[in-house]
């Protein structure tokens, strides 16, 4: 079984102004359809995420699980 790449950082909250998740930048529809999307479809969405995340109103206030794990491994100061 092959792992499916996901931009999820376990900060699951939707910005009501943009409709994008504060953590990953996907829409609710994209999140719910993620496992059934083709690899090409997921790559297309992932290419748009940095631009989307720049438009959300606020950033998460808490440390994400991914950041904490990287910090604990010494990858982030």
- Give the end-to-end Cα distance, rounded to a whole number of Å: 34 Å
How many distinct folded domains? 1
Helix content: 25-40%
Uncertain residue segments: none
Overall pLDDT metric = 86
Largest sheet: none
User: What letter string, H or E per element, gives the SSE order?
Assistant: HHH
Rg (C-alpha, Å):
13 Å
Percent strand equals under 5%
Protein name: DUF1289 domain-containing protein
Region (Disordered): 57-77
Pfam family, one: DUF1289
Provide structural commentary.
- The protein is mainly alpha-helical.
- It has one domain.
- Helix content is 38%, strand content 0%.
- The chain has three helices and no strands.
- It has helices at 28-33, 39-53, 65-72.
- The longest helix is centred in the middle third of the chain and has 15 residues, at 39-53.
- 10% of the residues are buried.
- InterPro entries: DUF1289.
- Pfam families: DUF1289 (PF06945).
- This is DUF1289 domain-containing protein.
- Residues 57-77 are annotated as: Disordered.
């Amino acid at each position: 079984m092959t792992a499916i790449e996901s931009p999820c950082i376990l900060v699951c909250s939707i910005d009501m102004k943009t409709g994008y998740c504060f953590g990953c930048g996907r829409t609710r529809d994209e999140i719910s359809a993620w496992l059934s999307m083709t690899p090409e479809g997921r790559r297309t969405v992932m290419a748009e995420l940095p631009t989307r995340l720049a438009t959300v109103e606020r950033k998460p206030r808490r440390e994400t699980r991914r950041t904490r794990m990287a910090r604990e491994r010494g990858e982030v100061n």
